[in-house]
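Please complete every field before forwarding. Incomplete forms are returned to the sender.

SECTION A: IDENTIFIERS
Entry label: holo-174
Bound molecule: adenosine-5'-diphosphate
Molecule representation: SMILES string

SECTION B: INPUTS
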Amino acid sequence: MTQPIFLIGARGCGKTTIGQALTHACHFHFVDTDLALQQQSGMSVADIVALEGWAGFRARETQTLMSVTQPGTVVATGGGIILAPVNREFMRQNGVVIYLNAPVPVLARRLEAFPEESQRPTLTGKPISEEVAEVLAQRDALYRETAHYVVDASAAPERVVTLILDALHLATAS
Ligand SMILES: Nc1ncnc2c1ncn2[C@@H]1O[C@H](COP(=O)(O)OP(=O)(O)O)[C@@H](O)[C@H]1O
Ligand SMILES: O=C(O)C1=C[C@@H](OP(=O)(O)O)[C@@H](O)[C@H](O)C1
Ligand SMILES: [Mg+2]
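SECTION C: PREDICTED COMPLEX
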């Protein structure tokens, strides 16, 4: 299988972390839409949002998603990639989409430990645990409708990678 693998899910579910580990396990290339768009623009997510608003960031995100998608690639996306119908359609049509699903307390704990504010400027102005609950309630249905597979992302990273490989019927490459 060489179709791109798209990882989707809420902030803190592990798209970037698990994407890198998965890449090693299946010998794919790794790309992260946030890292790619920050490298292309020379700005952090927070800088882009401050200058261009969330609409500017979302437009760059769509362009980046389309430009980084290649066969043999694991694409870690940003948590809001599923907001645009064009992105949802593109991912479903061009690869296999995995929703890394984790409960609100797990997400909030991870984000409180490593907020990375330049990567994750506030979406609602609310404290992290409130924001995580509110945003996931708005987006969970979109993650589910976009995904080909839903994987429990609350386990340890190596376990999450195994669950993804199992879902894709890929053997672990040593
Ligand atoms: N399965 C996991 N178990 C424990 N911690 C994790 C796991 N996945 C990610 N993390 C941690 O959670 C934080 C957010 O992970 P990250 O990969 O940046 O998530 P995302 O890209 O989905 O926002 C990081 O500090 C990372 O080390
Ligand atoms: O959920 C979101 O709307 C966002 C998630 C972030 O990526 P991660 O999910 O990798 O943190 C980043 O794209 C941006 O801050 C917007
Ligand atoms: Mg990420």
